[in-house]
Amino acid sequence: MEKHTFLSLLFHFVVFIACSSPSSSILLNDRSFEISNLPSSRAEKLIRELNLFPKLDVNVIDVGDSPLASSEEEVPSIVERSFRFPNIVSHSDDGASVEDLGHRAGYYKLPKSQGARFIIYFEISNLPSSRAEKLIRELNLFPKLDVNVIDVGDSPLASSEEEVPSIVERSFRFPNIVSHSDDGASVEDLGHRAGYYKLPKSQGARMFYFFFESRKNKKDAPVVIWLTGGPGCSSELAMFYENGPFKIDKNMSLSWNEYGWDQVSNLLYVDQPVGTGFSYTTDKSDIRHDEKGVSDDLYDFLQAFFAEHPKLTDNDFYITGESYAGHYIPAFAARVHKGNKAKEGLHINLKACDCFFFSYCVNGRLVFTSKILQGFAIGNGLTNPALQYPAYPDYALEMGLITQSEHDRLKKIVPLCELSIKLCGTDGTVSCLASYLVCNTLFSGVINHAGGVNYYDIRKKCEGSLCYDFSDMEKFLNLQSVRKSLGVGDIEFVSCSTSVYQAMLQDWMRNLEVGIPTLLEDGINLLVYAGEYDLICNWLGNSRWVNAMEWSGQENFKATNEVPFVVDGEEAGKLKSYGQLSFLKVHDAGHMVPMDQPKAALKMLKRWMENSLSGGDDVATTTTTTTEGDDLVAQM
């Protein structure tokens, strides 16, 4: 595999906790986590190599002994300085001098403390092909490719970006595709489009998207948008391997996907955040760092898309996706709902007001708003890390990935993970980066003990940088005939962007569940589904946050029995529903449910949009109660 160097941000940190008296442990909510009792195991070895935990006791000092000032009040929240270690070779192997590289150290004053400071060391450099890179690759901490940041003159749209409208869309036909689908529809008859949208809140960013009209009922079918996670992985992964209209065959030809979600919806795939897939920018400042930036971009795109397709504005609208989209989706859903309630929209100046396709009129002006959001669905997502990360040891033990002793050792790290997430809060600060590193020792501890397991599907071995071989997609999208058909010019297709991934690290440990109850109370439906063999965003962690979420229907939801989710007369999963909330554990599936169980996934989407998840053409009439342990089943 071709090696790519990339901008890395490495944090080595020590936590200094201020206490009223010296202690031999870190106080964690009336419990203590003994640093000295970390296990002598592969997990500890990994922790030591990453320098995640110091070997010494906690530093509790007198105020007057602070290295920063005699009066801590006079010191800013961050104190940083450039440094050079003594006795260091002046130049690195690639010729860079110590003076040229950005090596800095500093203290960060924790706002939610009496007197605690993080010490932070970081360096910005090109990560070498070394032991450090190998470790990062093994932990899957960074995807393999960089971001699309191009010169203005290299834009595929025009020599002058100012001359290009906000949305540029074209019909396309992929080469080497079977002319007719199984139901007789021809490629020429179906509306397959691709386009670029110019983000208004950017210096020069363009968001790429695919749009597929429904094969069967494009006039009335709902509009469904799909978001892939990463963060920084393109939605083409789902389009070609999960729920899109086509599948890629080994000879680089395309065949129709019998269970594509365009069977029941008008389907949108968006390459986001900017820098992912075919999306690009001419300015690095356009790379997003949090959910506000991501959701604002998606909302602006949605407004422009419905303006381009006004006949779709009366159709129901649903947001779907998986993995890190467990962050994107709640934030995006909240943004759409906020816009609808505030009557935001694109103003189109008309002398007379015709509201046939639009929501309302004001003073003779036509005011556009997107269709009211009907629901959002999260598949094997990361939504509430504080409840999902502690589930790793429990899930791994139940599935036979680790021993009881290894489980017990990993559980000792859980309090420190929980503390770090608490410090992170919901603001996405520097402490969130520390939390990311601490909590991922739980995941890496399982992986190291399990030995080569595919953490997206524990029934399989991990092969390649993403544990799957998606190279055919990259080969196909880099065919000159395909690029010409899509109008992307020389823009490089970035399946997973390292720069986007790194930019979103401060967002990783944030709890995005906090905005969901308001959506439920306002009548918007949520479906959380999870394949039972996924480790990285496992069903257990997802069920825990769903059950723990505080809303008016919480107690009734928890008290509701599971029912079988039946497809073609066979149980395809376990379903639990009350009011606007549904949770579905999908049998015989890993992280990517539509790839592993395409028929069940299509049935799931169709029934959910029809408000008949437990009914439809395969009515489930029997109920079951759960007999597994409370810790494992999370009150289900």
How would you describe this structure in keywords?
19 helices, Rossmann fold, Ser_caboxypep_his_AS, 636 residues, 2 domains, 5-stranded antiparallel sheet, alpha+beta, hydrolase
Give a quick precis of the structure.
With 636 residues, the protein is of the alpha+beta class. The protein contains 19 helices and 24 strands. It folds into 2 domains: 1-138, no CATH class; 141-342 and 369-384 and 480-636, 3-Layer(aba) Sandwich (Rossmann fold).
Structure description:
This protein has 636 residues and is an alpha+beta fold. Helix 1 (42-50) packs antiparallel against helix 10 and helix 7 runs antiparallel to helix 8. The chain has two domains: 1-138, no CATH class; 141-342 and 369-384 and 480-636, Rossmann fold (3-Layer(aba) Sandwich), CATH 3.40.50.1820. The chain starts with 6 loop residues before the first strand and ends with a helix. It has 19 helices and 24 strands.
List the helices and strands and how they pair.
Layout: E1 7-9, E2 12-16, E3 26-28, E4 31-33, H1 42-50, E5 78-82, E6 102-109, E7 117-126, H2 131-138, E8 167-171, E9 192-198, E10 205-212, E11 223-227, H3 236-241, E12 246-248, E13 254-256, E14 266-270, E15 280-281, H4 291-308, E16 317-323, H5 325-341, E17 347-348, E18 360-362, E19 365-367, E20 373-381, H6 385-388, H7 391-398, H8 404-411, H9 414-424, H10 430-450, H11 471-477, H12 480-486, H13 498-503, H14 516-521, E21 525-531, H15 539-548, H16 554-559, E22 563-567, E23 570-578, E24 581-586, H17 593-596, H18 598-609, H19 630-633
Helix pairs in contact: 1-10, 4-5, 7-8, 9-10
Signal peptide: 1-25
GO molecular function, one term: serine-type carboxypeptidase activity
Subcellular location: Secreted
